[in-house]
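Final report, closing paragraph on structural work. Over the funding period we assembled a curated collection of sequence-structure pairs, and we close with a single example.
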Amino acid sequence: MINVKKKKSKLPIELLIIVLLIIIMAIIYKYTNLNIYIKDIRYGIMNKFIIKKEDISSNISLGINKELEEENKSLKKLLDIKENNYDMITALVIKRDIEWYKSITINKGKKDGIKKNMAVIDSNGLIGKINEVGNNYSIVSLITNNINNKVAVDIDNYHGILDSYSDGYLIIKNIIKDNDIKIGDKVYTNGLGGIYPEGIYIGDVSLIENDELELSKIVKVKINSQYNSIKYVNVIRR
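Its predicted structure, as stored:
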């Protein structure tokens, strides 16, 4: 009887190698600059198709597109903001987080002078800070994102901390009980903490409540900006 030696299949070993490579690449993607590099390529390509401001103005002068005219008005209003004479970098929103209150992505990055933790505003006031920067894009963490944003604020000369977002309101805690804060008072950044410059408008006081121990007040602020429809922002370059 002739014994036929069966050839062992190399498929399982090759499969194992492929799986290991995929795992290694996933780890590299998550924990190194490869993630940012890939985003840079993607957003760099996207930026080539973004309409420039000059093109918008040209289209408006020709009366071609009514929607572009509205966008230009919004941009003009944004460019008129000169909070404390800070230098502004105007950018276009090119992506929104599925959970609209967490983050947006803009079409400006390192090559435009943007750095991490720079404050970001729209035509209605403060909306957040730069959380991630690539060459061709930046990700803005919104002040409605409870994880990344703690903002020191002033309300009629009283200090507090904007530290959470719930049910459509920004929540400010630890306001001393003996004060004359009232509905409608305007809320501004006070500059403490070194990230958000002083005097940037945030919103108006809508509700005032005592805390559980009735030792201080909780102030609820209605934000002025429509975070789910922002098109243009200004990054404050200090």
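The helical segments are 11-31, 34-47, 53-61, 66-79. DSSP finds four helices and twelve strands in the chain. We thank the funder for supporting this effort.
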